[in-house]
């Protein structure tokens, strides 16, 4: 076959274009060689072979078969290209979703955590310290929930205590926190399995304040004197503490009596008409009446003193020729006392405490100098009460 060869055909070079041109009767094969990307380095033999197809049916048959195969391949390539495009669409969708997720992450991470003020446990005020701890605990737990990416692991939560603890509270666990920092990946070396355990441990130490213990201490120290000398204020404070302690009425009545001022205690001792042991409300009301009567007696007593002290100054024994501007007759005084005792307790207290005339309420004089006649027009209830000393 060497006779068929030419110098040209023996030369080895890229013959993609020549092969494609020779395949004009076989469009799929031609298409294949037109689009093939890699060089086809060959001599002229393939082109001569293609040329024989016009006269050699075997060669023609072979090329027809190859053409069909190329057609099939092309369809397959189209199918694969279609899949490739779909895959590319999926890739873009995923990429977009990922970009969005990442940018959202960035935004969340960009919001700075507002850490709670470090809890030190150094306050000596137990009630205040307990309040501080409770608030701190709630803040820490909510931060763990609000920033799940920053607190994914127990280690991250545990080392967070270094940020939000100080003083003696931090000192009590700092050695064990150090072990976690030294062995971040070996939880076997840690003192706690979870960060919650630390909170529980701290709670045992700092959430100790008990309202009842506090109330018991306060009620133990309570006496009806100083800032609680005022009866209503004393009753309100005592009742408040006793309610916290969940005392029953009998206990309340007993403990109430123990804490009354000595003057009131003394008055009760001489009485046999006090309410039952378990009638706390009755005791409060009875003692209020006695207190009011003591206040009335004090006011009237002061009035009598003033009258007696002033009377000798008039320098005469003639009660009939009394000077109304300077003093009063003992008979007038008794009438006036009865009138004053008939006044509503609040009115009397107000006049007594503000230095007003007990008889008429005038600020310019005291009752011993009052020109206004004792008014006996009342119901008589007040005077009856006074006389019976009830
Ligand atoms: Zn008056």
UniProtKB/TrEMBL annotation:
It comes from the Eukaryota. Keywords: Coiled coil, Metal-binding, Zinc, Zinc-finger. Residues 357-372 form the CCHC-type domain. Residues 70-97 form a coiled coil. Residues 319-329 have a biased composition (Basic and acidic residues). Residues 308-331 are annotated as: Disordered. SMART domains: ZnF_C2HC. This is CCHC-type domain-containing protein. It comes from Achaetomium macrosporum. The lineage of its organism: Eukaryota, Fungi, Dikarya, Ascomycota, Pezizomycotina.
């Amino acid at each position: 076959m060497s006779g068929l060869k030419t110098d040209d055909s023996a030369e080895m070079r890229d013959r993609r274009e020549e092969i494609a041109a020779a395949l004009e009767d076989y469009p799929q094969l031609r298409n294949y060689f037109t689009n093939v990307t890699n060089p086809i380095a060959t001599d002229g033999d393939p082109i001569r072979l293609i040329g024989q197809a016009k006269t050699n049916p075997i060669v023609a048959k072979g090329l027809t078969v190859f053409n069909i195969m190329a057609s099939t391949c092309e369809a397959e390539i189209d199918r694969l290209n279609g899949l490739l495009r779909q895959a590319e669409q999926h890739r873009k969708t995923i990429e977009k979703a990922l970009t969005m997720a990442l940018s959202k992450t960035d935004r969340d991470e960009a919001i700075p955590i507002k850490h709670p003020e470090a809890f030190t446990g150094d306050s000596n005020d137990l009630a205040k310290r307990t309040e501080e701890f409770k608030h701190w605990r709630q803040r820490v737990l909510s931060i763990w929930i609000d920033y799940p990416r920053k607190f994914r692991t127990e280690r991250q939560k545990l080392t967070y205590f270094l940020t939000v603890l100080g003083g003696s509270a931090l000192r009590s666990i700092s050695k064990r926190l150090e072990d976690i920092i030294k062995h971040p990946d070996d939880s076997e070396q840690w003192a706690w399995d979870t960060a919650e355990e630390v909170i529980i441990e701290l709670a045992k130490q700092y959430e100790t304040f008990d309202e009842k213990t506090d109330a018991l201490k306060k009620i133990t120290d309570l006496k009806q004197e100083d800032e609680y000398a005022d009866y209503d204020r004393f009753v309100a404070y005592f009742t408040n503490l006793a309610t916290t302690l969940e005392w029953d009425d009998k206990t309340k009545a007993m403990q109430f009596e123990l804490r009354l001022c000595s003057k009131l205690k003394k008055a009760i001792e001489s009485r046999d008409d006090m309410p039952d042991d378990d009638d706390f409300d009755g005791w409060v009301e009875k003692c209020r009446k006695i207190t009011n009567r003591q206040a009335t007696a004090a006011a009237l007593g002061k009035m009598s003193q003033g009258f007696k002290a002033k009377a000798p100054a008039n320098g005469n024994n003639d009660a009939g020729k009394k000077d109304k501007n300077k003093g009063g007759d003992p008979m007038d005084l008794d009438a006036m006392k009865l009138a004053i005792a008939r006044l509503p307790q609040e009115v009397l207290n107000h006049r007594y405490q503000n230095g007003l005339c007990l008889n008429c309420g005038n600020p310019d004089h005291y009752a011993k100098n009052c020109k206004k006649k004792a008014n006996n027009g009342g119901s008589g209830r007040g005077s009856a009460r006074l006389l019976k000393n009830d």
